[in-house]
Every structure is written in C-alpha cells, then in structure tokens.
Amino acid sequence: MNSRSLFALILSLITLIALTAYVSRFLHRTPEELIDKTPLELDECGVTLTILYDNNPYDQRLGTAWGFSCLIALDTTTILFDTGGDGRLLTENMAKLGVDASDIQIIVLSHIHGDHTGGLDAVLEATSNNVTVYLPASFPSSFKRNVEGGGGRVVEVQQAIKVCDCAATTGVLGVGIEEQSLMVKTREGLVIVTGCAHPGVVNIVREAKELTGDEVQLVLGGFHLTSKSEKEITQIISEMKGLEVRKVAPCHCSGSTARRLFKESFGADYVEAGVGMILRIGSEM
Questions:
Q1: Is the pLDDT of residue 33 over 60?
Q2: In this structure, what are the phi and psi dihedrals at residue 268, rounded to the nearest 5 degrees?
C-alpha cells in the first residue's frame, strides 16, 4: 500500500468515527439503549408544583420577569427546576411565598440560557452545602466550577437519569440548544416540567413516555411557541392529544397565541400558569 492509499484509508476511518459520534450525539442514545426499551422505573409520589419565576402574572404579590423557575415538592424530596434570570427577584418571590431555600435538596437546570440559570448563585448562597445540581454535560467548565465553588455538587447529564425515587430527567435532547426536562411519576400519572422545550414539546413528551411507559397527566413550563403560526400550534396540540396528554400548563416562552389555542382545545384540562401558581397532583400535603 503506497502512502497516498494509506492516507486515504486513514482519512476515511477518521470520517467514519466522526460521523458515528455525531449520529450518536444526535440521537442521544448508545446503540445498546436503542435496543433496550425497558422503562425507567420510578416510584409513585405526590407533588406540589409552585412557579417561583415567570413572565406571566398569577399571584399579584409577586414580581414577573422573562425566565422560569419551578419548585417541585415531592413526598420526601424538594427539587428546584431552573432558577430564573434574576437571583434577587427569585429570592424575593420565594420569601413572599414562604419558600425556605434551605429545604431545596436538588437543583435541575434545563439548559444554559441565562433566563433559566441567572438566579443560581443566589439560590446556592441560600441553600445548604449538600445541594446537588443536575445540568447538561455540555455546560461550560467555568459554569460547573462556579457551582462547585458555591457549595453545590455537580452531576453532568447526558442520558436519562433518576434524581430521586420518583423523579428523573429526560436526558439531554435537541441539537444546537441542548436541553433536559424533568419527569415526576405521581399517583395520577406522569408530570413533565419543561424549561423552554427547545427540542420540541412533542418530542419531549414522546421521549418521556418511551422512557417511563407511563401516561402523561400534565405538561407544565415553557413550550417555545412564540414564533409559531396558529396552524403550527394547532398541529402541535393535535400531536399532544395524540400522545394522550391529559392536562397542559404552558407558560414562560409559550406565547399568548399558544396559550389561547391550548385553552380552547383542552378546556377544563387547561391550567392557567404564571408566577405564584401552586398546583398539587396526587399529593396529600
């Protein structure tokens, strides 16, 4: 084999390796996981959801700003999903709602955007030093060091992973803007909390159902539909109904048009969501 042929062979192998890595990253699954369809086993629990930060008003005592944060109080674990964009406003809203930051044991960050991570430093300062922060592995190293410097323990997420007995993340989904959502198995069905749903809210719901094998009781959070047409939103609603989603609570980046169309379609199963909304599902608390 001459040097030119050897070079061509090496180049072909490098290209094949790079393509394989890209496809695996795109699918966010290893070949073994593509074969293994065993549902992620979660225990049932009650959950109380409290929106602490949002650009949609609900409780008039609270401040609104672009971003999202939701407190998820389970039977034995308290999770903060995203931290809004402003730590001062987040902690002020928490104080007005009687939320004690020291009760937070787990923080889950959906994606890197500042309107979902901006309040993290303030929360870390107010929580105990044993809080665990689940974030996409693609977050910058400087961000992870900052979390550790603030007393948090970093868990880098790529694939779906349990964060406690009855809750798990979907794993990182999407291309470009990578994002994870949270799944909670309640006594009434699966609750899915989204940050911005950049990977597509339908894709997130489909992935959650496939991962758990459970029916979806509620999808709450940003649906990222502000730039979508009514026709596109109507199609998304149809697909959500096709996936047998029972209730929806779109907020943050969902947009007023989408909120109106979801309300018209879901009727009594539409949940008006905004900062300060408290919703209990399968909970005896």
A1: no
A2: -65, -15
- How many domains does the structure of the chain reveal? 1
- Please identify which residue in the block is written with the tokens 């749903």: 197
Q: Is residue 143 domain-resident?
A: yes
pTM of the model: 0.86
DSSP state of 63: -
CA angle 9, 11, 14 (to 5 degrees): 110
According to the model, what pLDDT value does residue 38 have?
65
Q: Which amino acid is at 230?
A: E
Q: Name the least confident of 10-14, 42-46, 90-94, 213-217.
A: 10-14
Instruction: Give the burial string for 136-170 (b: 16+ CB within 10 Å, else e).
Output: beebeeebbebbeebebebeebbebeebbbbbbbb
- The reply to whether 66 falls in a domain is yes
Q: What angle, rounded to 10 degrees, do the helices at 256-266 and 230-242 form?
A: 40
